[in-house]
What does this fold into?
Amino acid sequence: MRETKLSELEKLCLEKGLKMTDQRKVIAQVLSESADHPDVEQVYQRAHNQDHRISLATVYRTLKLFEETGILTKHDFGAGRARYETSDDDHHDHLIDITSGQVIEFTNDEIEKLQRAIAEKLGFNLVGHKLELYAIPGKRGKKKE
Amino acid sequence: MRETKLSELEKLCLEKGLKMTDQRKVIAQVLSESADHPDVEQVYQRAHNQDHRISLATVYRTLKLFEETGILTKHDFGAGRARYETSDDDHHDHLIDITSGQVIEFTNDEIEKLQRAIAEKLGFNLVGHKLELYAIPGKRGKKKE
DNA sequence: CTAACTGCAAAGCGTTTGCGATGAG
DNA sequence: CTCATCGCAAACGCTTTGCAGTTAG
It folds into this structure.
C-alpha cells in the first residue's frame, strides 16, 4: 500500500514533467506514513529528520504541488495552520476532539446524499463540501489519550 | 428589528462594563444592516464611510469583542480572511457559490440530528459543527448576479 | 545541457498588539 | 478622574516568492 502510493506518485510526477527529487520522495513517504493529519511544521520536522537537506520552503512548495495533483488534501481545522492528509479513495468527514486536537475520520452516506439534495433544491450543483464535528469525549468509553 | 439588535447590543456592553463608543455603534449598525457575510475589510470600509474616525485596528478589535459576547459569528469560508454575520437565533449552515463568493443560508434538521448521532456513536458529545457546501449554479433557475 | 528544483532570506497577507493620546462613565 | 478604548505603526504567524546555485532527465 505504501509502495503503491509512492509509485503512483512517481507516475504522476512523470506525467506532469515533474522531477522526482530526493526531497519529494521523503516528503511523500512522510505523508504516506502519517495517520494523523499533520500540519506543515510537523511534515517539515519529520522530513527534515530523515534528510537534513529539506527546507521548510520546499515542504510548503511540495505540499502545494501534491495538493494540486490531487495526491494530498488540505484541511483548515481552524487553528491557523493548514493540515494535510493523503487523498484516500473513499471520502470521509472529520470529527475533531477539541480537548486534544485529535481528528477522527468517519463516513456517512446519508449525510452525503442529503447534502447533494440540499444543493439541488437551492438550484446548485455540489462540487465540494466541508463537514466538521467539534466534540468532547463522552463520559464513558472515551479514547485513551 | 434593527433597533432591537442595537439596543440588545448596548445592553450587553453595559452588562460587561464596556463603553458604548461611537465607533462601536457604527460597526454594530453596519453589521446589523449587512445581509451578506462581510469580511473585515468590507466592514471597515462600510464603517469608515460613515465615520472617518474608525480605524482598521478598531474594526478588528470590535469584531473580536462582539464575537466573544456572542453577538457575531465568525466564519472561515476558505479565502484567507474571516467573514462575519450576526448571530441569529436560528442555527443555519452555508452554501457558498464558488463562482461569486455569494453565501446562501439554509437549515436542515435531519442533518443536525445525524451529526449528533454520529458523534455519539463515536463516543463524543457534539459541541459544535461546521457544514459548508461549495457549489456552482445549476443550469436553469440560477440566481441573478 | 537546461528547465525544474532547492535553500535562504526577504516579502506578503491577514491579524494582533504596544504605546501614548482620547473620551465614556 | 480613571480606566476602557482609540489610532497609529510595528510586530506576528503562517505562507509565498525572488534569486542564485544545484540537479534530474
